[in-house]
From TrEMBL:
Residues 30-44, 101-111 have a biased composition (Polar residues). PROSITE patterns: HEAT_REPEAT, LISH. InterPro entries: ARM-like, ARM-type_fold, HEAT_type_2, LisH, RELCH. This is LisH domain and HEAT repeat-containing protein KIAA1468. It comes from Sander lucioperca. Residues 10-25 have a biased composition (Pro residues). HEAT repeats lie at residues 864-902.
Length: 1059
């Protein structure tokens, strides 16, 4: 029962004052359903016309109705009435003030009001913990009995949430309008001044178009393009339309916009929006305003409805079209039957007659032939069914022709199982694919990956690779290794750095085929170019060392060509090239030198140095790109081209500095600024170059001083490394940064070769590496003069200091390998020939022995022999003796008879001149030289000169009274005879000179004390010689002596077997 109205309040007329009379016209109600529009009185009005019968009926105003509801405590009805007015755009101040005042809803907890208590207009209600207004209450959830405090709070909070959402929507509408009108004044000015220029795009329009373009790409399977487009517009969320703008309705897709771009939109029809609530046409009184002009939002909504209705009609027409097309097909199939029906044939007769047409539809192929595909999808399904039966029947040499068909079907087939089968056929298409066939398959795989995207590549292609990782045919494993590299750009980054990297690492460690490991290394290089996980650095470093230690040269070559440049590019991006990669290699070299005091592992040293050498171009690129002048480098037409010889020839395009920088033009511009900076402005603030100068070079020079100078391999490796380093960093850098550091250490004075004081730097490998790795980088006159002067000073200093000549010999050996430096070395030696010190002349004579083997015979005749003959007549006997090894080497290598005769005459003078009869050192040197060069010398020289003179020396040694000299000569004779025993000797020479010489040597052995081990060795050869008497001397002796070597241990073993 509702309470009666209070006295004095205007009340309704008798009956139902809110119902229109029977003859009243139905009101027309137009309400906006948009509850987010700004609420203001008069903004949106409710238009209704009512024809009321009779003139005596009184109209009640809306405000009066509200006052009556509040007085009679119809709070819920008042709230609903307030909401309806808000939706109609007609807000009453009375209701607004009432429901926005929290004080209207306060009461004492647990104390119900008295029946006759005069309450405030709002009645007693609890306040919620938040802003509690009656707008936040939902009285439909309450009954009249009891207090439900918790339900009231929930109701308040729910309504507050709804109000907050409405406020957000209103704000979004305002912001959207502001964004749409945001065009810069300059753009407006340009647009006004040039009407032919299109108005600039607004931010909201751009975001809307971006969303529609991305939606189109995804809907039509352009997934890679969509990904790229999303990356280029990373400030927009393409998953949510609301991100485009605030409160903006989503337009139709691009295809629909394109199809309707030239069609005029029909005028919108009048529409009525229906809302649940009070019908204001039923209210008496003149309380409803006239229709306002329609808002833009309403107009847009009406246009959208028209578009949707048209789309619906189009879809109906499309369905009708398809239905008619199917009916046409059925009618076409029925034409033959109708023909038969026209001539009135029975069905049995028809079937019997058609049986004479030889058709087969009960087999698999017959079923496929009789069922013609009528759509793209059915074509794909048919290909998926037929290809597995077609492939085995195609010749192996022509199966690559099926690759396009297989790939297209695998891309478009709807069934995952069928796609998997087709890709399995692709990888097993050819039993042992050759290089061209593998390239074709890889091309198809890449095309497949581009079309389907990373997800399907991971799910469908990678399993095929994994299955064949241990295939018995290396060609199939090679296909797997190459596929991993080719597919790397199209795989998810997590898969690249985990599964694919693990697959390649396993194949590198386990596969026995060189060509497979080579492909693995190249694919690893590609992976390193796309990897972005810094935690994989250590794994990449270990893979580099593992592949560098591979026994196959082609694998190691692939490491330098592909893997190291890619790995260096990644470390450059990480910033660890100078801080981790190069220092790690240097630390391993130092550790190797510390462990190799009793025997250096030259192979490992080569591995580490070759890696450093391949890292030189990336290091120089880092120096250029981080220089103070980099931002000033610009590519212009007047920049000179880079000289062809400016850089060492790269092992691959990836090691070309121009490729690393980006272009030869940019590199040329940077090099001009680089040389100018070094020559005029210095290196201040240039951290990357300062690291090279202050840390890398000193550490390298310190390492060089610790390697064994007698190891020609180590000297050569370090020389080549310094040569490439200096050529890469340029001449100015070499002259101003590298040479001064070496010269500071190599102070050419006798104090620097005092071994007892520890100043032995000139005897170490620093000398040959500086001479051959730094001073030979550039070959102009001043550079050659500097090299000549350095070698002359080293030769002089070492000779006068009685120091070992190993460092000088290593320099001559390394330089002598290149014919370009032969004239230069002869100039250095001639300086020694004419030197005033006999020590220097002796050194020069010994250096000729190293140079003769590589010099052509013309230079030997014109430069070497005259110098040696000059030294052979030197006043100092030691100088003359020093020429004997060089003369012997000439007899071993030269073929000119005149030249050989001159050398022979000089050696004969040493042997036959009475002044040398008692020269023990000279005899020792001649016997040693004969033993070294005899096996390789001309047979005539050996038979007519070497063996007869050895016989004379052995005979003369029998009468030697000094036991130590006799032992020295006998030992040296034994070594010489052992070496010559392997030569072909005529029977006459054997009987007349070789055997008599051995008998003389045996006599010397019998006179020596038993404790000399050489006596035991000689007894073996003497017993062999004694057993030859009366037999075929040549054959028997050669077969016996061929079993002996100069090794004492081997001779002892032979002697033991003879017991």
């Amino acid at each position: 029962v509702s309470p009666s109205p209070s006295e004095g309040a205007p009340g309704p007329p008798p009956g139902n004052p809110f119902s229109p009379p029977p003859d009243a016209e139905p009101p027309t109600l137009l309400l906006s359903s948009n509850r987010t529009s700004p609420s203001g009185e008069g903004s949106v009005s409710v238009a209704a016309t009512s024809a009321m019968a009779g003139t005596a009926e009184t109209r009640i105003s809306v405000d009066g109705i509200a006052a009556q509801l509040l007085r009679d405590q119809y709070i819920l009805t008042a709230l609903e009435f307030h909401t309806e007015l808000l939706e109609a755009g007609r807000e009453l101040p009375r209701l607004r003030d009432y429901f926005s005042n929290p004080g209207n809803f306060e009461r004492q907890s647990g104390t119900p009001p008295a029946k006759d208590q005069v309450l405030g207009p709002g009645g007693p209600l609890h306040r919620a913990g938040s802003i509690s207004t009656l707008d936040s209450l939902d009285f439909a959830r309450y009954s009249d009995d009891g207090n439900r405090e918790s339900d009231e709070r929930v109701a308040v909070l729910e309504f507050e949430l709804r109000k907050a959402k409405e406020t957000i929507q209103a704000l979004r509408a305002n912001l959207t309008q502001a964004a749409e009108s945001e065009v810069t004044s300059q753009e407006r000015k340009n647009f006004k001044s040039s009407p032919e220029i299109q108005e600039p795009i607004r931010p909201l329009e751009k975001r809307a178009l971006n969303f529609l373009v991305n939606e189109y790409l995804l809907k039509h399977d352009h997934k890679l393009s969509s990904i790229t487009f999303s990356d280029e517009n990373d400030d927009q969320d393409f998953e949510l339309w609301d991100d485009v703008g605030l409160n903006i309705p989503k337009p139709p897709d691009l295809l629909h916009l394109y199809r309707n771009c030239g069609v005029s939109v029909p005028s919108p029809r009048d529409t009525v929006d229906v809302s649940v609530g009070v019908d204001f046409g039923d209210l008496p009184g003149n309380c409803i305003a006239q229709d306002p002009p329609k808002k833009p939002d309403l107009l847009h909504q009406q246009q959208t409805e028209v578009v949707q209705e048209l789309e619906y009609q189009i879809s109906l027409l499309t369905n009708e079209k398809q239905s008619l097309a199917e009916q046409i097909k059925k009618l076409q199939r029925c034409v033959p039957e109708c023909m038969f029906m026209l001539i009135k044939l029975s069905p049995a007769f028809q079937q019997a007659l058609l049986s004479f047409c030889r058709m087969c539809s009960d087999s698999r192929l017959g079923a496929e032939v009789s069922r013609i595909a009528d759509s793209e999808e059915s074509v794909m399904l048919m290909l998926g069914r037929c290809l597995p039966h077609i492939v085995p029947n195609v010749l192996l040499a022509k199966r690559e022709e099926l690759i396009p068909l297989i790939l297209c079907t695998a891309c478009l087939h709807p069934e995952p199982k069928e796609r998997d089968q087709l890709l399995h056929i692709l990888f097993n298409l050819i039993k042992r694919p050759d290089d061209e066939q593998r390239q074709m398959i890889l091309t198809g795989c890449v095309a497949f990956a581009r079309h389907v995207g990373p997800t399907r590549v991971e799910a469908e292609l990678l399993p095929q690779c994994w299955e064949q990782i241990n295939h018995k045919y290396p060609e199939r494993r090679l296909l797997v290794a190459e596929s991993c590299g080719a597919l790397a750009p199209y795989l998810p980054k997590e898969i690249r750095s985990s599964l694919v990297l693990s697959m390649l690492q396993q194949m590198l460690a386990e596969d026995k085929a060189d060509m497979v490991r080579e492909a693995v290394v190249k694919s690893l290089g590609i992976i390193m170019g796309y990897i972005d996980d810094p935690d994989k650095y250590s794994q990449g470093f270990e893979l580099m060392l593992l592949s560098l230690g591979d026994p196959s040269e082609r694998v190691v070559s692939a490491v330098h060509q592909v893997f190291i440049p890619a790995f260096a590019a990644w470390t450059t991006e990480l910033g660890t090239l100078q801080t981790a990669l190069i220092p790690s290699l240097l630390a391993r070299i130092e550790k190797l030198l510390m462990q190799g005091e009793h025997g250096l592992d030259e192979h490992k040293l080569h591995v580490f140095l070759s890696a450093l050498q391949s890292l030189t171009p990336p290091l120089f690129a880092v120096v250029l790109q981080s220089a103070p002048f980099t931002s000033r480098a610009k590519v212009t037409g007047d920049i000179p081209a880079i000289e062809v010889t400016r850089f060492p020839r790269p092992a691959s395009p990836l090691q070309d500095v121009a490729t690393i920088i980006g272009s030869r033009e940019m590199l040329s511009a940077l090099l001009l600024l680089y040389d100018y900076q070094l020559e005029h402005e210095g290196t201040t603030g240039w951290d990357s170059l300062l690291w090279v100068v202050n840390q890398l070079l000193p550490q390298l020079i310190e390492i060089v001083g610790r390697i064994n100078v007698t190891s020609s391999t180590c000297v050569h490796e370090f020389s080549r490394f310094f040569w490439r380093l200096c050529r890469t960093f340029g001449k100015i850098f070499t002259n101003t940064k590298v040479k001064p550091q070496f010269q500071e250490i190599l102070r050419l004075s006798e104090e620097n070769v005092d071994v007892s004081a520890g100043n032995d730097i000139l005897t170490k490998a620093t000398v040959p590496i500086y001479a051959t790795g730094v001073l030979t980088c550039y070959n102009q006159d001043e550079d050659r003069k500097l090299l000549v002067g350095f070698l002359e000073d080293v030769m002089t200093t070492l000779s006068l200091s009685y120091a070992p000549l190993d460092s000088l010999k290593a320099s001559f050996v390394e330089l002598g390998a290149n014919p370009v430096y032969h004239e230069l070395l002869l100039t250095v030696l001639w300086y020694g020939v004419v030197h005033t010190s006999a020590l220097v002349r002796c050194t020069a004579a010994r250096m000729f022995e190293l140079l003769v083997k590589g010099v052509n015979e013309t230079l030997v005749a014109q430069r070497v022999v005259p110098a040696l003959i000059t030294l052979s007549s030197d006043p100092e006997i030691s100088v003359r003796i020093s020429t004997i090894p060089a003369f012997g080497t000439i007899m071993e290598t030269v073929t000119q008879k005149e030249l050989l005769e001159r050398v022979k005459m000089q050696l004969a003078s040493f042997l036959e001149d009475p002044q040398y009869q008692d020269q023990h050192s000279l005899h020792m040197e001649i016997i040693r030289t004969f033993g070294r060069v005899g096996p390789n010398a001309e047979p005539r020289f050996r038979d007519e000169f070497v063996l007869p003179h050895l016989h004379k020396l052995a005979l003369a040694n029998n009468s030697q009274t000094v036991e130590s000299k006799r032992i020295d000569i006998a030992t040296q004779l034994f070594e010489a005879y052992s070496a010559l025993s392997c030569c072909f000797i005529s029977e006459e020479v054997m009987v007349n000179h070789f055997l008599p010489g051995l008998r003389c040597l045996r006599a010397d052995m019998e006179q020596l004390s038993p404790e000399h081990e050489v006596r035991k060795h000689s007894c073996v050869s003497m017993s062999i010689a004694s057993s030859l008497v009366g037999e075929d001397a040549k054959t028997k002796f050669l077969s016996k002596m061929g079993q002996l070597t100069t090794s004492g241990a081997m001779l002892a073993n032979v002697f033991q077997r003879k017991k």
